[in-house]
From TrEMBL, chain A:
<dbReference type="Pfam" id="PF00005">
    <property type="entry name" value="ABC_tran"/>
</dbReference>
<dbReference type="Pfam" id="PF08352">
    <property type="entry name" value="oligo_HPY"/>
</dbReference>
<dbReference type="InterPro" id="IPR003593">
    <property type="entry name" value="AAA+_ATPase"/>
</dbReference>
<dbReference type="GO" id="GO:0005886">
    <property type="term" value="C:plasma membrane"/>
</dbReference>
<dbReference type="InterPro" id="IPR050388">
    <property type="entry name" value="ABC_Ni/Peptide_Import"/>
</dbReference>
<keyword id="KW-0813">Transport</keyword>
<dbReference type="GO" id="GO:0005524">
    <property type="term" value="F:ATP binding"/>
</dbReference>
<dbReference type="InterPro" id="IPR017871">
    <property type="entry name" value="ABC_transporter-like_CS"/>
</dbReference>
<dbReference type="GO" id="GO:0016887">
    <property type="term" value="F:ATP hydrolysis activity"/>
</dbReference>
TrEMBL record, chain B:
<protein>
    <submittedName>
        <fullName>Oligopeptide transport ATP-binding protein OppF</fullName>
    </submittedName>
</protein>
<dbReference type="GO" id="GO:0055085">
    <property type="term" value="P:transmembrane transport"/>
</dbReference>
<dbReference type="InterPro" id="IPR027417">
    <property type="entry name" value="P-loop_NTPase"/>
</dbReference>
<dbReference type="InterPro" id="IPR013563">
    <property type="entry name" value="Oligopep_ABC_C"/>
</dbReference>
<keyword id="KW-0067">ATP-binding</keyword>
<dbReference type="InterPro" id="IPR050319">
    <property type="entry name" value="ABC_transp_ATP-bind"/>
</dbReference>
<dbReference type="InterPro" id="IPR017871">
    <property type="entry name" value="ABC_transporter-like_CS"/>
</dbReference>
<dbReference type="Pfam" id="PF08352">
    <property type="entry name" value="oligo_HPY"/>
</dbReference>
<dbReference type="GO" id="GO:0005524">
    <property type="term" value="F:ATP binding"/>
</dbReference>
Amino acid sequence: MAQQEPLLSVHQLKAHFQSEDGLVKAVDGINFDVYQGETVCIVGESGCGKSVTAMSIMGLLPDTSKVEGEINLAGKDLTKLSKGNMRRIRGNELSMIFQEPMTSLNPVMTIGEQMTEVLLEHQAISKKQATKKSLELIKMVGIGRGEQIIKSYPHQLSGGMLQRVMIAIALACDPKMLIADEPTTALDVTIQAQVLNLLQDLKEETNMSMLLITHDLGVVAEVADRVVVMYAGKVVEQGTVEEIFANPKHPYTKGLLQAKPVLGSRKKKLYTIPGQVPKLVDLKPSCYFADRCEHCMKICTQQTPELKSDDSSEHKVACWLYENEVVHK
Amino acid sequence: MTQESLIQVHQLEKKYKTKEKMFSKNNEYIKAVDNVTFHIKEGETFGLVGESGSGKSTIGKSILRLQDISNGEIKYHGKNVFELDKKEMRHLRTKMQFVFQDPFSSLNPRLRIGDALAEPLLDHGLATKKNVKEKVMETMELCGLPTYHINKYPHEFSGGQRQRIGIARAMIMNPEFIVADEPVSALDVSIQAQIINLFQELQEKRNLSYLFISHDLSVVEHLCSRIGVLYLGTMMELASRDQLYENPQHPYTKALLSAVPIPDPTKRRERILLKGDLPNPASPPSGCKFHTRCPFAMDICKNETPVFKEREPGHFVACHLVDQEKANT
């Protein structure tokens, strides 16, 4: 898979915001690729920059933000596109679903109106054809009674149904790339299982790529091909899902995996990562995880480690512990 | 059984009026809790699991008499909570406490946390103005809050610390019993582990009993000794942790367990996928409420409500399928 050109390539992406307290580096120089037909998961806790990453790829950050770096989607640099061109790409080639289906749909428009709106905007088809396509899409995401659904308003449907509608709208124009920001977090477990299964099936059918943002490591293990672990605006580790779970390297990744209670494996006490995520204002060059890390060394508080691998593999980590390994060899 | 049980809930029923009809006596009701029976032993953690709308929180609130009930009994140390007079109830309020999901919305934003913690002590005459500060600091330390925070306002704290404040506010009355309603659901993994461990420490130190309400089956497995599974206000299965997780009987419990994503990519399991959404609680299905989504539903399930029976010592199930299997063997 590595020989092929990546579909999405994010290079040195930065997203900074000016706040009252100073410059917030929400995303600070991250790199990752997503290949055709692949699911990449971005994991991390709140405030680590997952959603800002997604929004900057979509070009949906407010004008007050400063976005730098390259975002290449199928050869086009999205950061250089005009607003109009970006609008054409959004929905067509690049699509997104959000955490709260309830708040991302218009409460005073019927589901049908909202679905045909997307189709009419992006494709040269008649209203009749758009309605027909909407019905097909609703069927595709596993909702029966399509005729009835397109006449309903969002408040008449359950959370799981709405998330399916959102997925249907996102997939209306056969995007190459779907970004899903915590798509199942607001749903009950049994509904979450349905939606994850649906996304997985649709991905296989259409061979699209998916960038899934989540804090739930269980979800990651179920759907991801590769994983990007973020902490305080930086990527601290990335690799294939098998490597990350079997052989996590960064102390933060290890901590996350140990801190989560897992069904069927009982421990007396849960491992905890002390402290909390730092404020992203005026951070000095250092490993941002240093003050919570049990392996913290002097260098960790003075220099920022780079994301690299100690061999040529795809498994990369940004941690001084492994830099030393390289040095000692 | 009566001797050791701290809380006894017997055939609890809670109906909410949905529509007030002006000229008709036949008001419409939603049965949020329908004929639920269980007990909580001294020093144990009893878990209530279920999806949204299953009646978990309603049961929690009813036990603390934060709302009236429609039918049934709730006993605390053998005394019916709803027959206590004002004075007795006031005393009981100190012994039973509540920890909420979102501590921020349950704290007065204009009260320093030192004052917020002192308020109930002074109100109940459990401390004098002189020694109240000492007691507040003691409880803050107990709950892992540095005492120099005593003069801060709620908005100055992070999510994890706010939950510690919520717990401190409950602990300061030196209670015997705490109802914790989704206390870790809004927290990040690393913070969640800290709070779960705090709950365990407090239990060991103070011999507390908990009613732990959660939708997260992994957290419940970690914390609880006995667990009840609710679906649309009805108890489907009740068993010890080992019985429930190793030998679940009810198809709903099985489906719930199989829907939990496991953070191990080598274990991608076959799921029991439930069809459809939770039915509208205002018009619950006839017979067994789960029959509309149950993969094993039979004719009898549509017509007859299964009896909640003890199958093995301490293991209760309400399911016709289990009844039949028992009859055949």
